[in-house]
Amino acid sequence: QVQLVESGGGMVQPGGSLRLSCAAAGGTFSSFHMRWYRQAPGKERELVAPMSSFNDNTNYAASVKGRFTISRDNAKNVLYLQMNSLKPEDTAVYYCSAYRGGLNYWGQGTQVTVSS
User: Fold this and answer.
1) Beta strand pairing status for 3-7 and 18-25?
2) Any residues with CB less than 8 A from the CB of 42 and at least 6 apart, and which?
3) Closest by Cα among 39, 2, 43 to 24
């Protein structure tokens, strides 16, 4: 069982930056494939950025490529999402997930609002 807690969300103006964190406990963090998702009101949950357990390869959603950066610190059991040049359409609840062996664990989400 893995517990995930996201933090770092908030309200920011267009063009601003935020860094989200996802702290993991209860499992071997380095063995999990980690992902950031987001869900905007009235829309389906969208995969934003995955990061595998065995390399740093990522495959960002087209809508965030070049603006968002996913990273992980296996020593601290933390997943990050650096978000730059934020746009109003980035407004959503952001979730991290940990996947391994057919099981997917979710955090409770953190709200990001981009508005002037």
Assistant:
1) antiparallel
2) none
3) 2
Answer yes or no: is pLDDT of 12 > 90: yes
For residue 89, the SS3 value is helix
Contact predicate 105/4, CB 8 Å: yes
Please tell me which residue, 30 or 19, carries the higher pLDDT value. 19
Q: How far apart are CA 79 and CA 70, in angstroms?
A: 7
* CA 112 – CA 64 distance, rounded (Å): 14
Residue % of the chain over a pLDDT of 90: 86
